[in-house]
Amino acid sequence: MSALLKVEDLEIFYGSIEALKGVSLEVYEGEIVTVLGANGAGKSTLLRAISGLLPIRDGKISFDNEELNDTKPYKIVISGISHVPEGRRVFSTLSVEENLRLGAYIQRKKKMKIQESKERVYDLFPILKERKNQLSGTLSGGEQQMLAIGRALMSKPRIMLLDEPSLGLAPVLVKQIFKIIQEINEQGTAILLVEQNARKALSIADRGYVLETGNMTINGDAEVLRKDAKVQEAYLGGAALKKRK
């Protein structure tokens, strides 16, 4: 079985600075794959490259066996990839409903499909239905994150790229967001998750990769990574774990 999303030897530069140095990864249908790493490791750069927002110096990105290099971002969305950026990036002066409609832009002539997608979002996030006429800029941080995920779902993606969905959220909301990510995955959407909360990410992921200063250094099954000494020390509070034992 071939990978749904395949990144091969990807090199991305910001001017003369090499941000990604021959990065490779795969995501298969139905998987949750997480990418772990410290700030500045290149995680957001990876997602932006997949979404067509950054030029590729070298390497190859394929989705469903079709090469995406030099593909316009809107065509990448049409192909079945949606991206929830770090920091939510909702349209603050538009209502919740208007934000969702923008997410369905590629289906703008299919009113029934837009309605189906919207009902799916409201089923996942009942609070958004209650707030549908409210300006998104007045929502709480957790509600804005829900809206950003809901907006990405409106295009009916086959894979969703999630960039730091738990950033800045209270623990109770983090738990809720991760539960919803699992639900979305169970409904048939593959997930590529960039997340600094390594413990939570590995608890829901099938597989994981560790990105360090632009290089993929470790990859494997999520359970194997959770037990890896280097991963524990760097991302899971390894020293604290040893003390509790």
Task: Walk me through what this model shows.
The protein has helices spanning about 45-50, 75-80, 95-105, 110-125, 125-130, 140-155, 170-185, 200-205, 220-225, 230-235, 240-245, and strands at about 5-15, 15-25, 30-35, 60-65, 65, 80-85, 160-165, 190-195, 205-210, 215-220. The longest helix is centred in the last third of the chain and has 16 residues, at about 170-185. α3 (about 95-105) runs parallel beside α6. The radius of gyration is 18 Å and the shape is globular. It starts with a strand and ends with a helix. With about 240 residues, the chain is an alpha/beta fold. It folds into two domains: about 1-25 and about 30-80 and about 160-245, Rossmann fold; about 90-155, no CATH class. Strands 6-7-8-3-9-10 form a six-stranded mixed beta sheet, sandwiched between helices. The chain has a four-stranded antiparallel beta sheet with strand order 2-1-4-5, covered by helices on one side.
> What is the number of beta strands?
10
Largest sheet: 6 strands, mixed
Radius of gyration: 18 Å
Termini gap:
41 Å
Order of helices and strands: EEEHEEHEHHHHEHEHEEHHH
- The oligomeric status of these chains comes to single chain
Strand order of the biggest β-sheet: 6-7-8-3-9-10
Shape: globular
In round numbers, the mean pLDDT is: 90
Low-confidence stretches: 239-245
State the helix count. Answer: 11
User: What CATH architecture of the largest domain would you give?
Assistant: 3-Layer(aba) Sandwich
CATH class of the largest domain: Alpha Beta
- Beta-strand residue fraction: 15-25%
CATH fold topology of the largest domain: Rossmann fold
